[in-house]
Amino acid sequence: MDVAQYLATVDIANYESAEHFWAQLHGLSNKDVVVIARSIFEERQSGRVNTQHSAFFFESIDNTQIFHTVVSPYLSVLLEKLNAIPFPPGDILELGCGAGVAACYLAAKFPEKKVVGVDLFPEVVETAENIARLLKLTNVEFRQAQIAELDLNRTFGSVLSVALREEMSSGRQGSFGYFSAIQEMPEALRAPASHLSRAAARHLSPQGMYFSFERCHDIASLAMWVGELHSAGLAPRLELSEMLAFSSVLTGVEKMPFLVSQHSEEVLDARALLGWRSAGSEDAQSQELNIEKRVYENHAWKIVKATEFGIRDELGDAAARVYLLECDREGLVYFTTNRGAREIIFETSFGGAQILLNKFEHLLGELTYNPSVVDVRGITSL
Ligand SMILES: C[S@@+](CC[C@H](N)C(=O)[O-])C[C@H]1O[C@@H](n2cnc3c(N)ncnc32)[C@H](O)[C@@H]1O
User: Fold this and answer.
1) Residue 257 β-bridge partners
2) CB 40 within 8 A of CB 34
3) Domain harbouring 236, CATH code
4) Among residues 353, 319, 356, 312, which one has the least CA distance to residue 336?
5) 65 pLDDT tier (thresholds 50, 70, 90)
6) Residues 6+ apart with CB under 8 A from 275
7) Segments forming the whole domain that contains residue 361
């Protein structure tokens, strides 16, 4: 099935710019929707989240469509990718399916396959069911469940996850590109990111393929994600995988490796991963990637600790990560943001990570104390 046609059927438009989006939004006949959407975005811009306002996105199909057009810059790219790859035999499981746009697309494309979508929140599942009904699909089923504990007692030929890993642990339910459109996830519902690769492996048939589109805005986060896959007994096949970058109307550039993984004991080494990241990417020449390459190229750095923070900058919400890295006797505290900032904050050529541990903890303390006002220049002077 043609992707543009599908998106038009579920009435998910694509906007080229924020101005275009607002112009379209103001043209809608339902002025309530316009007013609420506007106030949610303004709240976000000023760092406040009103969960009641945010819940609006899941109240009806119309509202969900607005949500998707605004915050899912990757939907059409993602569906085009799914359209182009050969799916293995067998049914399909989507973990963290959200409003079910990808699951319903695959159900429509493969009427002979059964598609199961799982998400944590009942209102999200209900939205997905509404879209399936709208499309008159009978081979797709949605379930409300926690991925960390999921055991459907069967395997699938394909497992899919899109923008789920980061959300499981960060507590930003329903957020896209660090734009928390829905609500903060209660602490009790958060799960370590490593549960995702294990849930995928548990449900993947021996010859099955796990297709993942998970955000990794720097090489270290890509290495962590691949490490989690390895520890679940999965290995990405780099020749089938691709680095994708999207530009969102409201959140700027997003980076997502599209990884195709299979059950395997093989372990990719850091050099192979770095080579793939640098070569297979349209942004290969970008300054941020060059800085990362300088850090990683000559050393197989081990991530000793890593923490992610929400920050604000002049463009609004963003995400930053601080890593404590070690290689032999050298150590680094390295800072990255999803807007492309990269900085080595502390380094040592003796004593390894241990010698930087106090400085790293101090930095985390500062960031935890007030993550919303951090800017990269402030951090370097700590
Ligand atoms: C960013 S959204 C992505 C939704 C969808 N895959 C897409 O790209 O349109 C992440 C989804 O994962 C769900 N989620 C987060 N943590 C989860 C968990 N532990 N178990 C199940 N679903 C979870 C959220 O409710 C949310 O719908």
Assistant:
1) 243
2) no
3) 3.40.50.150
4) 319
5) low
6) none
7) 300-380
pLDDT at 370 over 60: no
Ligand 1 atom nearest to 190, measured from its CA: 19
Model-wide pTM > 0.70: yes
Q: Which atom of ligand 1 is nearest to the CA of 150?
A: 20
Q: Is the same domain home to 274 and 333?
A: no
Q: Do 353 and 219 share a structural domain? A: no
- Taking the centre of ligand 1 as the mean of its atom positions, its distance from the CA of residue 174, in whole angstroms, is 6
Q: What element of type H or E holds 226?
A: helix 219-231
Together in a domain, 94 and 132? yes
Q: Same domain for 92 and 238?
A: yes
Residues with CB under 6 A from ligand 1: 72, 96-98, 101, 119-121, 124, 146-148, 162-164, 167-168, 173-176, 191
Give pLDDT, residue 116: 98
Of the pLDDT bands very low, low, confident and very high (cuts 50, 70, 90), residue 181 is very low
Residue 173 alpha carbon to ligand 1 centre in Å: 7
pLDDT per position as a tens digit, 96-124: 998 788 999 999 999 999 999 999 878 77
Number of domains in the chain: 2
* Cα of 94 from ligand 1 centre, angstroms: 10
What is the distance in A from the centroid of ligand 1 to the CA of 214? 11
**pLDDT value of position 23:** 65
Are 344 and 237 contained in the same domain? no
Residue 365 belongs to a domain: yes
Q: Is the pLDDT of residue 91 over 80?
A: yes
In a domain, 153, yes or no: yes
Sign of the C-alpha dihedral computed for residues 114, 109, 121 and 131 taken in this order: negative
